[in-house]
Amino acid sequence: MTSTKAVEVSAPASPPAQAWKGRSLGGAWLFGTCVWLLRFVGVSGAWVGAWIVAAGFMILGGREQYGALRYWRRLRPRAGPLVHLLCAYRQYASFGRVLCDRMLVYLRPQDYRFSYRGVEHLHAALGSGKGFILLAAHVGNWELSGYRLRLVHPGPINLVMVRGDDGYVQRMSDEHMRGTSVRVIDPRDPLGASLAIYAALGRNEPVCMLGDRTHGQQAAVRAPFLGASAAFPIGPFHAAMLTGVPILVCFLVKDGLRQYRLEVDPPWHLPAAARGPTRTRELHVAVTRWAARLERQVRRHPLQWHNFFDFWV
Question: In whole angstroms, what is the distance from residue 13 CA to residue 216 CA?
């Protein structure tokens, strides 16, 4: 396990200048146009369109590109600027395909295939009748994984995510990808989000959380990630520690033009720890373990980590 000496707890005073704000790039007009076109062009057309939109963003995106370039400098330190630029371009195209797939899976589910690794852990957790935390990141198609969970779990599902998108984009996502069984908890209100998460776990409901972005005043732990210190939210680990529920780490990665693979790790139980140095130390260990697990996944699927701001500020 990676050393925890460089890890520290922090509560950001304010979001960094290049921080992600929960809003899709391009706005409602681009989103609406893409949704309309997808009904006609299908999966192959979406693949071509993703390259076109990615090229436009590389030309017009301005400073929003810089986080991706810094990511590739860390991941491929020996490569030159042209290689980093090409990798960022491919990463944006990957994100475009993921966005298209969210709608296409709803419109044409027969066109997609899903394979599974470790899905028995998810079935066991759902069958236990107890709450648990499904911990994911912006790797692959995280929102589509919530849609798949809704198909196999008839009960309530709680999704912790920022509701900062354009109203039209948000309504489309709610209608097609979430439905009435998925309750969204916005983490930008830390106290309200914490109460909602603990209430859901107390009702023995699953809570889906992302562990690779912090928002505003969220408490964070800095841990080694891709060769430097980065901030990770402590919310999932704090909730698991206080409630005793297990964490299931999962990723839904794109395996081909029409194929995805769901990967679920065995349940991860955090030890209960009294408030004070012991709890702080256990949170250090948990976040560092998660950062190492995320780094392994990112290195396996580097084009599918869709964080486009400077993660190490």
Answer: 7
Is residue 97 within 8 Å of residue 50, measured between CB atoms? yes
- pLDDT for 26 equals 52
Q: Between the CA atoms of 22, 28, 29 and 31, what dihedral angle is there, to the nearest 10 degrees?
A: 70
For 9-67, the pLDDT digits (tens) are: 444 433 443 444 444 555 556 666 677 778 888 888 889 989 998 888 888 765 556 67
Amino acid identity of 270?
Answer: L
Query: CA-to-CA distance for 18 and 307, rounded, in angstroms?
Result: 11
Q: How many whole angstroms from its chain centre is CA 86?
A: 23
Look at phi and psi of residue 113 and say left if phi exceeds 0, alpha if psi is from -120 to 50, else beta: beta
Measured between alpha carbons, how far is 133 from 145 in angstroms, rounded to an integer?
14
Q: Are strands 132-136 and 206-210 parallel, antiparallel or unpaired?
A: parallel
In what side-by-side order are the strands of the sheet with 220-225?
Answer: 8-10, 220-225, 228-233
pLDDT value for 171: 61
The CA–CA distances, whole Å, from 204 to 4, 93, 127, 288 equal 32, 39, 11, 27
Helix, strand, coil shares, percent, the chain, to 5: 50, 20, 30
